[in-house]
Structures
1.
Amino acid sequence: MIFADKFRQNNMNRFFSILFFLLVISLGSCKPIENLPDEPMVEFRSFTLADTIDILGNPAKSGKLLFYFEDGDGDLGAAAPDSSSYLPDSNLFLQLFRKKNGIFELVPPSDPLYPSEYRIPYMDTPGQNKILKGRIEVTMIYFLYNRTDTVYYDFWVRDRRGHDSNTASTCVFVLGDIGTCGT
C-alpha cells in the first residue's frame, strides 16, 4: 500500500512538472498582435549612383533608391489596371531638389531631371493579419545631367484607399559621383 501511494505521488509530481513546463513554453511563445496605422510609412535606406549603359549603348547614370515601408491595413500597391485603362495609377511620388547658389530648390516639370511618378504593383497578404512590411528598390536612369549637380529627393507613397505616407528624404548626392549614401 505504501509502495502504491509513493508511485502515485511520483507520477503526480511528474505530471504537474510536465504541465508547468508546457504552460511556461506556451505562454512564452505567444506574441502580441501587432497593430500599425492604416496610413503607410516610408523610411529612406540608401541611394546608389553607378555608371551604366542605356539600351542604345549610350553612357548614362543609374540611381537606385532603396526604402523600407509599412502599411497597417495592407492596401499598398495599385490594383491591376482594367482593360479600359492604359495608364496605371501612380502611387510612388518623387520630388527632386537641386542646389542653386547654395540653396535647394524644387525642380520644375520642364527640367530634364524632373522625376517620373512610379507604380508599386499590387500587394496582399493571406490570413487575418494584413500588415505589409518590406523594402522597395526603384531604379532611375539619368541621361542629361550636369556632373556637378547636387541634388536629393523627397518621396512618399499612396495606398489604394488614398492614404498618403509620411514624406522621407534621400541623402544629398552629386550626380557626377558614384557610390552609395544612406544607412
2.
Amino acid sequence: MLGVLRGVLISSLFIFYPYLVYLGIKEGMVWFAPLVIASVYLVQGIKAKKTAIRLNKLAVVLFIFLGTYFFQEEVAKFMPVFIQLSLMVFFGKTLWKGPPLIERFVQFEFPEIPPVIVRYCRHLTIMWTSFFAFNVLACIVLALFAPVEWWALYTGVMIFLLSGLLMILEYIWRHFYFNLIDLPNKEIPSVKDSIKNMAIHGKKIWFDVQES
C-alpha cells in the first residue's frame, strides 16, 4: 500500500511539474521545482540495488543541482525534455533488444501471440517511440523560443491530451484492424483490461527493460 501511495505521489509530482515551474518563474522561485525532482532521484539513487542504476540517478541529481545553480530557468524548462527522452529510449530500447514493449504486455494476455499481432505490437511500439521523439523536439523548441505560458500549456496539458487521443484512436483502429484479420472480438482486450494489465505488470516490465 505504501508503495502504491509513493508511486501516485511521484506521478502527481511529474504531472504538475510544469505548473510548479510556471509559478516558480512568476514568483521568482524557479529553482524550487527542479530541486524537488532532484530529491526524488536522490532517494531512488540511494535505494537502488544495482550500481549502474544508482550512478545514473545520482548523475541526474548532480546535473540538476549544478544546472539549477547556473541556469535556473533553462534547466527547469528542460526537465520535460529529459522525461520524454527517457520514455523514447525506454520504448525504443525494446525495439532493438526485443521483444517490443507492447508485445511484453500482450504476452500476459495471450500465451501464444499470432505473428500478425507480433507485427502489430512492434508497429505500435514504433508509434509511441516516435510520439515521444516528437515531444522531445517540441519541448526543446518551446523551452528555448516560446513564452513560458506556451511551454507550460504544452508540457502540462497538451502532451497528456495528445497521449489520450492517441490511445483512443489506436483502440478504435485495433477493433477495425483485428476484424479485418478475423481475430474474434472476444480476444481483443478492452481499455479496462489493458489498463489493468499495465498496472499489474508495469513495474516488472520496467525493471526487466532497465536491466536488459
3.
Amino acid sequence: MPPKGERRKYQIVNTAKDMFIEKGFQSTHIGQVCEKLNIARGTVYQYFSNKKEILYAILYSVIEKIEDMFDNDDLQEFFRSGPDSSSVIKFINKRISGCISVLVNEPIVIKLVFKEIVGIDTEVVDKVNESVLKIAKIIGREIKEIKSRGIYKSNLDPEITASMILGGVMMLVYEYDKKNLNILDKAVIDSIADNYLNGVLV
C-alpha cells in the first residue's frame, strides 16, 4: 500500500480529473476539489501550486506508465533468453496491448488532445502536445529496437509508425466516446494490437 501522502496525492489528481472532464478546466477550482474530498485547501497546496500542475501530473503519470510498459531492460532480458518466434509475438503483443490500455484508460488525455476540456489555454495545449510527442518517442524507440532484430519490416519508419499507432488509438477512443461505446472492451484492445502486428511483422 502506498504511503498516506501518495494516496492523498492520487485522490486529489483523480478527483480533479473527473471535475475537469465534467465541469471544464476553467470552471473547476481548487476549493471544489477540497470540498469533494473534505480536506483543507492547504492539503492540496502541499502537492500542487495550482490546478495546471494537477493537470500536468495526469499527463506525467500516463508517460510514466507507457515508459514502464516499454521498459528497455525488460525487452533486452527477454531477447537474451532466446525466445522462439511464437513467444516473441506474444511478448510484443502484450506490450502493445498494455500501451493501448494505458491510453484508453485515461480519456482525459484524448479529450485534451481534441481540445474538448473547456477552458484550456495555449500553455496547456503546448504541454499536451509535448506529452504526446514524448509518448510517440517511447513507442518509436520500441519499434526501432524490434526492427533492428529483424522482426518488424525493414522499410518501417519507427517515428512514423509510432505516430500512426498513437494517432489511430486516440482517434478510435475519441470516436467510441462520441458514440458511447466501450473502448475498454478487451476484444477491442486485442483487435487494435492484432491490426498493428499484422501491419509491421515480417
4.
Amino acid sequence: MIRVFDVRVVDEDGSQLGVMRTTDALRLAQERGLDLVEVAPLASPPVARLLDFGQYKYELTKREKEAKRRQKSVTFKEVRLKPKIGIGDFDTKVRRAIEFLEEGDRVKVSVQFRGRELTHPQIGRDLLDKFAEQIKEHGVVERLPLLEGKSMHISVASVHKPKSHEPTPAAAAKGQARTDEDAAAVMSAEVATDSVETPASPEAPGPEPDDGAASTGKVN
C-alpha cells in the first residue's frame, strides 16, 4: 500500500508522466490493466512506476538465470614434467596443456628436480623452452623459466576465449536464492491495491512540481 499523497509517475516504457496524486496514479494504472509500484520511496516525491508486476518478476528471474548461464571463468591448471621425461610422456603432456588452453584456462608448466638434478638447471630450462614452442599457437608465455627451490616453471596464458561453464546444482540453487531475494526486495516496494491510504487531514499542499521536473530517485 502506498501511503504518500503525491508520487512521481513513470510510464511502463520509462517515460516521465510527472507528479500526480496517488489516487490518480492508481486510477491510471487500473485503466491500463497494470500495477502501480513504488520503486524509489526515498525520493521527493517518491517515484512509482506503471508495470505488470508478475511479468516484471518473471523477467528478473530470467535475466538472473541467463547471466549465470553465460558466466565465464578462467582457472589455473598445472602440468608437471621431469628432467628425464620420455618423448611419449612429453607429447602427452603437451596435448594435455593444449586442451587446457583451448578451454581458455591458464597453464603452469613446471619441471621438478630431485637430488643432483638441481646441478643441471639448464636441462629444465631447455625442456620448458621446447614445451613453449610446442604450444605457442595456443598460448603466450607470461614469464621466463626461473629456478625456485626444487622446481622451475613458466606460466602460459591462453589465446582462446574462455568457454561458458554451466553452473553446478549448488551454484544454481544459490543463484535461485539470490533471485528470490531480489524479487522479495521488489515486492517490498508495495504494489498498490484498490485501497490507498491517504494521510489524514493533510495540510494544504504546496504547489505541485512541474511534470517535467527531474526525479531525484533512481528509476529501474
